[in-house]
Amino acid sequence: MADLQTIELVKDIEVDKYKYGFETEIESDFAPKGLNEDIVRFISAKKGEPAWMLEARLEAYARWLQMDEPTWARVHYPKIDFQDLYYYAAPKSMSGPKSLDEVDPKLLETYAKLGIPLKEQEILAGVRKQGEKSELDDAGGSEYSSGKVAVDAVFDSVSVVTTFKAELAKAGVIFCSISEALREHPELVKKYLFSVVPQGDNYYAALNSAVFSDGSFVYVPPGVRCPMELSTYFRMNAKNTGQFERTLIIADKGSYVSYLEGCTAPTREESQLHAAVVELIALDDAEIKYSTVQNWYPGDAEGKGGIYNFVTKRGDCRGPRSKISWTQVETGSAITWKYPSCILRGEESRGEFYSIAISNGRQQVDSGTKMIHLGKNTSSRIISKGIAAGRSDNTYRGLVSAHRKATNARNFTQCDSLLIGDKCGAHTVPYIEAKTSTAQFEHEATTSKISDDQMFYCMSRGLTQEEAVALIVNGFVRDVLQQLPMEFMAETQKLIGISLEGSVG
Amino acid sequence: MLDINNLHVKLEDEDRTIVNGLTLNVKPGEVHAIMGPNGSGKSTLSYVLAGRAGYEVTDGSVTFKGEDLLEMSPDQRAAKGVFLAFQYPIEIPGVVTMQFLKVALNAQRKARGEKELSTPDFMRLVKDRAAKLNVSQDMLKRPVNVGFSGGEKKRAEILQMAVLEPSLCILDETDSGLDIDALRVVADGVNALRSPDRAMIVITHYQRLLDYIVPDHVHVLSKGRIVKSGDKSLALELEKQGYAEFDKSAA
Questions:
Q1: Computed over its alpha carbons, how large is the radius of gyration of chain B?
Q2: A359, A388 in Cβ contact below 8 A?
Q3: Taking CB atoms and an 8 Å limit, are B99 and A456 in contact across chains?
Q4: Chain B residues with CB inside 8 Å of A446's CB?
Q5: Which of B54, B84, B143 sits opposite A475 (nearest CB)?
Q6: A118/chain B closest Cα distance in angstroms
């Protein structure tokens, strides 16, 4: 049966056909291995941070020492030796470039290999390609007519370059690395950092708060619609490093910003740790759209190597009528532990979570969201599409809660799982807590397999087995794909194809 | 073009022979109708020709354009020019019909070593073929077969056939579930594709379809083998007598 053949193919094909598994040879500046107060001080000093920041880091470190690693997620991995990691690695030649010309050409080569549009021409060229396809994509008009994308590139622990700064500054938008923000806009950072994810929030958030080395910072002033798509590309390169980036985005009253992050890492035998924290703050009537395309190295077919992706992402709809929308495409990482959440504090605020999580080989995904309704007439929507293949485990874990005062809170949740083969698992763990009788929560869930009939139908039209699976899966995730910024939709469709190419029949 | 010789087919999971010594020779330009009662092996024949899993060929051979068809995967057969119009077309949620057509056409072209069709050329091709089959632009934007009426599904199958331009078309009970107007549209679409270098195998239960798609040859299938062959008058004869007599002779 075609189904059996599919399983055979999953077995045969090596999972680790990881397209982005190259390493760039650049001299790196390391902090000594291991973690202690001195390392925290070292990182803070290296960044030339204000004293309050060092204190906040030390407090986080003290908290972290008191905490235990969480074990409630449906993931299994050997104990991490936190003393065997480097907590700071920076490309040596990278101490503060001001323009693309100052960047090590090898770095630019790396980004070129990743297909990252650092230069304006390339971006525009990319958009034109997209335009050709749009008639077929049937995706409707784009909100982002400018077609430009500003990029902040983070290599190991350091932000190496940010494009379009001047143009953004004209609109009053601040888009820079968080280290730079600490130097140039300390008052903004001090006001908002840790205000959504406090230092002691959870084990990994505490660790991140102590040792985060860089990340992106965005501030959009009142009433401003950010004139272009903002984007950060993260890449882990050096061996045995942990990557701890910190992202802080503030949309002031009545503003709008759309932000996308992409992640890759080289192929390595040992596992690498990635523990990022993202904080979003939307004030009155503001809207933040945050999209992630996560393609960290997933490990090989036997589960050797790969990234441990332990990430805390949370948005605070602080003002009335504010809106935060998370869209994630998770194809990489050996282990994903990630729950982008929304605190719906402002009245009539709205939270959205759209997710595609593909797991395969020995990958383990435990991901979902939390929608915490605090304000009156708040609403949220969750669409999760999980695809499990190989011997992977794919869990959706989500909490929807309504506070006593959150009258008329509304939520709609839809969780669909697609299984490929019979060695993988899909799990749905929804938690629903309503403390007001006026809340209306809906939950729908389905689990399905790619049917033999669908495979045969596609193949009888000329598609190979791999093409057929990619097409069917792309159809399955279509609702979520459409939430991605236009500029990245085609790219993501291709990525889904690639990640299934190396993994599925 | 197609040589089926003494074909024996059983189900992979059960010890039940469904096709039992079938021999059929189809030349370019010919239209063959295969008629027979339920369970005579009509649909199995179409699936085996298209390469569906779950069937085991225990004896005999199928040669298509001089090559062993049974050795090829379904997509290789498609690229070589075999097309099966399904009796029950399959739904593919989320995949827009237009996109499906494009992916299929370009996959076949790639397999044949041809260049992919550019988007404008492709759009022109589909628009032209769709108009002839009364397939609306709206239908092209909907996911493949999802929510299609019976008639829409069959028209969509013929549209795929018209776009992919196969050399061997197998129509599996394309008339089932169609009212007379829909039948005419589908038949017109099929007739428009008749050409000296394209062959067709029309599988049907009823003579009705053959009023519109007039065959060169009619074969009666019973218990997995052809028990009688003739010209189009055989279909009319069958209509009068029913299949009972042939079932007896095959026993």
A1: 18
A2: yes
A3: no
A4: none
A5: B143
A6: 28
Residue A446 structure tokens = 């389905």
Report in angstroms the alpha-carbon separations of A27 from A7, A30, A106, A153, B173. Answer: 43, 10, 11, 18, 68
- Taking CA atoms, what residue in B is nearest to A475? B94
Most confident of A131-140, A227-236, A249-258: A249-258
* Chain B residues lying within 8 Å of A136, measured CB to CB: 96, 98-99, 102, 119
Return d(Cα B201, Cα B232) in angstroms, integer.
Answer: 14
Give the Cα separation of B61 and B8 in Å (integer): 9
**Structure token digits, residue A134:** 């749009």
Q: How many residues does chain B have?
A: 251
Contact residues on chain B for A476, CB-CB shorter than 8 A: 93-94
Q: For chain A, which residues make up each domain, given as ranges?
A: 2-501
Burial class (CB in 10 A: 0-12, 13-18, 19+), A246: buried
- What is the rounded CA–CA span in Å between residue B230 and residue B16? 29
- CA B229 to chain A, closest CA, distance in angstroms equals 29
Protein fold of B2-250: Rossmann fold (3.40.50)
**Do residues A474 and B95 touch, judged by C-beta distance below 8 A?**
yes
Q: Which tokens belong to B161?
A: 């056939």
State ipTM.
0.95
The predicted structure's pLDDT at residue A414: 94
Query: What is the Cα–Cα distance from A48 to A59, expressed in whole angstroms?
Result: 18
Chain B positions contacting chain A at CB under 8 Å are: 12, 50-54, 73-75, 77-79, 83-84, 86, 89-96, 98-100, 102-105, 107-108, 111, 119, 123, 141, 143, 160, 164
Summarize the confidence of residues A292-315 as an average pLDDT.
83
Whether A477 has its CB under 8 Å from any CB of chain B: the answer is: yes
Q: In this structure, are residues A123 and A204 in contact, taking their beta carbons and an 8 Å threshold?
A: no
Q: What is the pLDDT of residues A247-286, one digit of tens each?
A: 999 999 999 999 988 766 555 556 678 889 999 999 999 9
Tens-digit pLDDT profile for residues A72-81: 888 888 888 8
pLDDT score recorded for residue A264: 61
Instruction: Count A/B contacts: CB-CB distance under 8 Å.
Output: 101
The A residues from 125 to 144 touching B (CB cutoff 8 Å) are: 132-133, 135-138
User: In the structure, what pLDDT confidence band is assigned to residue A321 with cuts at 50, 70 and 90?
Assistant: very high
Instruction: Find all residues with CB under 8 Å of A426, minimum gap 6, and list them.
Output: A386, A388, A394, A395, A417, A418, A419, A447
Residues of B in contact with A138 (CB under 8 A): 96, 98-99, 141
Of A336, A411, A328, A406, residue with least CA distance to A371 = A411
List A390's β-bridge partners, or say none.
Answer: none
The pLDDT assigned to A241 comes to 63
Residue type, A103: V
Q: Which residues pair with B220 in a beta bridge?
A: B35, B228
Name the residue ranges covered by the structural domains of chain B: 2-250
* CB contact at 8 A, A83 and A125: no
* Chain B partners within 8 Å of A456 (Cβ): 50-53, 74, 90
Least CB–CB distance from A136: residue in B79, B102, B143: B102
Average pLDDT over residues A166-180: 87
Question: How far apart are alpha carbons A409 and A405 in whole angstroms?
Answer: 9
Residue A107 token pair? 């770095």
Residues of A in contact with B52 (CB under 8 A): 2, 456, 460
Provide the terminal-to-terminal Cα distance of chain A, rounded to the nearest Å: 13
Across chain B, mean pLDDT equals 91
The reported pLDDT for the residue numbered A106 is 56
pLDDT grade for B238, boundaries at 50, 70 and 90: confident
* Residues A168 and A150: beta-carbon distance below 8 Å: yes
Rounded CA-CA distance A46/A172 in Å is 29
Task: Report CB contact under 8 Å: B104, A461.
Answer: yes
